[in-house]
Amino acid sequence: MEVLTPALKIDPPAWMSAPETAAVFAALQGDGAIPAVLCVGGCVRNALLGRAVEDLDLATVFPPDEVIRRLGAAGLRAVPTGIEHGTVTAVIGGKGFEITTLRRDVHADGRHAVVEFTTDWREDARRRDFSMNTLLAGLDGVIYDPLGCALADVRAGRVAFVGNPDCRIAEDRLRVLRFFRFYGAYGDGPPDPEALAACARAAGTLGNLSRERVTSEILKILSGDDPARTLGLMFECGVMADLLPEYRGDVLRRLCALQKTYDAFCLETRVLALVEMDQGRLTSLENKMIFSNKSKEFCRAILMAIEEFSCRKLNSPLNSLLYKHGNGVMEQVILLDAACNRASGAVAENLMFVRRTARPVFPVSGKDVMAAGLASGPQVGDVLRELESWWVDQDCAPDRAALLACIRERLEKAPCSGDSEAVKSPCAKSRASGGTEKERRT
Ligand code: ATP
Ligand code: MG
Prior knowledge:
Helices cover 52% and strands 11% of the residues. By secondary structure, the chain is an alpha+beta fold.
């Protein structure tokens, strides 16, 4: 085994000194001078930069079955999440630690890799994508730089491939997307010209990457501070032609700026800003990428609401849209609409309204309709729906008393039939004799 020389010592951040991390390290402790387990990649890079750490990746000299055995002996739960690639996840108190055995790639065809396990830390570093992702750290805050260039690259904001960029991309084409993702997040100054040229040469070969891997990288790019800059660079390199040929950056740029100004980050809205979106384009995007059902629902709700929002009369109140779509959707609708229309007019005012106003609650129910004399049955629902639709047309202003009066009038006028006049205007009389609640108030 080769010797690892400490390159630097930092004050261990909270996640390094957490008891869960210590428990995993204790289970995988070796007996020699060379560490048997170390933190690797993103968590070390981010610790150095003082950035948040989302997931903890560990590397170990032990083969996966030994990792499982040792975790089990220490009473820790081990899940074989990617055993053929050497990855076992230790789960402690809901926290996951991805532990991967040191490895070298023996064969890679652009999508899949066949790996061999090793105990050589430097060999493992050489199969990683970018130099800044090869850093290692012990729990004492000691940082190791097995290739000798990673520390300088992290500090300089230089995203450079380990080895020859064309070869590394040919082994795994996803590295093209990863290059742009890491450049967007950590790059300082112009991108590494060799890396950029290799990415441009690989454009047009990304078509059959798995949807899961592509989605994960694109969503991470979109979550960044300035995704339009990153995607713009990808577009110039020809990389977007395979992924999203209709991409246009101006709306996304304006949306991200608005989300930042108003502290209203939302990934789904950023997805909707990628192309001139409608239900059909959203469906085709959903076929290219993988979104959770929750995200799909949120996107569809925004699309539906934005249409109503942009058709509404200028400066008309937003209560009915808030009632139909909810505060979270409306907040994003206001921002996306402003980004699409280059308008900043009433954004602050509308946002404040949506943030300060509780979602209206329809103040009557079927019980009220029955209490007014209609027997239980489908007509109760009919009356309620008529009333609700009228109430929404009045921007949810009539209060419970006004609605109860409407129910009584409605039933007096058409006690148990679907009288079409009454259906259209359940509160005609009430309006004639003094107007709606809102009109009376204003
Ligand atoms: P993040 O903070 O976004 O999680 P990360 O560096 O941890 O960044 P991951 O995608 O979690 O990125 O990958 C963990 C590590 O595994 C990377 O730092 C890198 O060393 C290695 N790695 C991941 N994907 C690849 C790949 N396609 N090719 C080579 N190495 C990779
Ligand atoms: Mg990670």
